[in-house]
Amino acid sequence: MDWYNPQDIEIPNGHFINGELRTFDDDTLSEVCCPSSGKPYASLPCASENTVDFVINSTKQAFTETDWATMAPRDRADYLFKWASLVENDREYLAQLESLGSSRPYHEVLQWDIPYVVDCLKFFAELADKHGGYIGATQQNRLGMVINQPYGVVGAITPWNFPMSMLIWKVGPALAAGNAVVLKPSELTPFSSNHLARLACDAGIPKNIFNVVQGLGHTVGQAICEHPSIGKVTFTGSTATGAAIMSTCALKGPKPSTLELGGKSPQIVFNDADLDKTATIVAKAITGNAGQVCVSGSRLIIHESIEKQFTQQLVEYFSQLKMGATWDKETTLPPIISARQADRIESIVSQSIADGAELICGGKKVLEGGTFYTPTILKMNKADNCAITSEIFGPVLTVQTFQTDEEAWNLASHETYGLAVGIHTNDIKRALTGMRKVEAGSVWINRYGRSFDHIMPTGGFKQSGIGKDIGVEAFQANLHSKSVLIDF
């Protein structure tokens, strides 16, 4: 039984600029496919560089001519609270729109994504009037002050795996700090961003303060990063794209960037952990959103004495998952975002097996309407196997065993990535030791995954990123400081 009829969803197609949906004469069209069916359901107008220039200039003009940056911060917060209320009121339509075009099941969007977006937006609204500069220690006949000001126009580029949540990560703190925003959502999941932008206008946020321009990364994304009126760039996506963005920002600015990038996050399970509880945590952390999560717990590092028992528990959990469309009430394993991504997963798994990994379960691409991939466990034969070194972005879990704590910490530290780590043990001394030893931006002990504690920042070490999303750090990253010195 379906939650809704996907053919009944009204698609807010186009660019959202100056409070309305628009297209331009030099737009090119790109098909947008539904992951659950594999079929196109819309033709997306992709902007040219000229359109990006027009949009950014319009946004800069709005930043300069409206009072968004100069109004009382509490008034700015009120608009953001109104926006959050409108999102909550439109939750069913947003959940349908999001699940239709992404890999997010409808009931998960309704129960998790929408409340997360609303709560996170309120968090940043509450920070709007709770920051300031400081008075510096100077000679008695002068006054030294450090004040904070918004950058102006922030360029935001968001991924396809959690379109609305990632939008709020970028747009929420930028607007709360008084900036304007030009957003490029993923061309694979473009439409929920348009409706969120419309709701922002309905809440009273001035037109052109938050604009959405649709298109491809190598044209629209590149043009945003290169534009001289963009004060800062914020991006979530692959490490390779993040490196290209950082390079462009350096060459064409220099301008700051916040980058939340790839991960290959370990879950370390010791033999004193609650194995039943931990097995469920580990299984959900690799199959949630079909493993298409930057912090997906994709590397199981487990004490050798419990490996076989624990692995069997995972296999049993995986066997109960049901593949299906995102609008199907029974779906517990959603589709892979595209056939191309499924082919990439299949290629890495095949190469891993050819290189000596043992296939415990799964390892199959399934074509049933959309494209799916069976939850997969690979027991590793060596640390440089491609399934360990590469971010797969699918429901594929590698298994490595250890005997000593030090061996566990060494296995957990990845050469390339350092986004998150899960540590499962009842020994608090051991857990806190691992917290310091493993190089990762987020450490979860006897749990795995983010919560609604938006005060906790997220971001990676090594090639998993620079800067922080969420938390006070994310808000402060949308302001730059100015020194003021006054002689009496």
> What is the CA–CA distance across the termini?
75 Å
Coarse structural class: alpha/beta
CATH structural fold name of the largest domain: Aldehyde Dehydrogenase, Chain A, domain 1
* Spatial shape: globular
Helix content: 25-40%
The average pLDDT is 97
What's the oligomerization state?
Answer: single chain
Summarize the structure.
The chain is an alpha/beta fold.
Describe the structure.
Helix content is 38%, strand content 23%. By secondary structure, the protein is of the alpha/beta class. The protein has two domains: 6-261 and 465-487, 3-Layer(aba) Sandwich (Aldehyde Dehydrogenase, Chain A, domain 1), CATH 3.40.605; 266-453, 3-Layer(aba) Sandwich (Aldehyde Dehydrogenase, Chain A, domain 2). The chain has a seven-stranded mixed β-sheet with strand order 14-17-18-13-12-20-21, sandwiched between helices. α1 (49-65) runs parallel beside α7 and α3 packs across α4 (106-127). It is globular, with a radius of gyration of 23 Å. The relative contact order is 0.14.
Produce the secondary structure layout.
Layout: E1 15-17, E2 20-22, E3 28-33, E4 40-46, H1 49-65, H2 73-89, H3 91-101, H4 106-127, E5 134-136, E6 142-150, E7 153-157, H5 163-176, E8 180-184, H6 191-202, E9 210-212, H7 217-226, E10 230-236, H8 239-252, E11 257-260, E12 266-269, H9 275-287, E13 299-303, H10 307-319, H11 339-354, E14 358-361, E15 365-368, E16 370-373, E17 376-379, H12 386-389, E18 396-402, H13 405-412, E19 417-418, E20 420-424, H14 428-437, E21 442-445, E22 461-462, E23 465-466, H15 471-476, E24 479-487
Parallel strand pairs: 7-8, 7-10, 8-9, 10-11, 12-13, 12-20, 13-18, 17-18, 20-21
Antiparallel strand pairs: 1-2, 3-4, 5-6, 6-24, 11-23, 14-17, 15-16, 19-22
Helix pairs in contact: 1-7, 2-4, 2-6, 3-4, 3-6, 4-5, 9-10
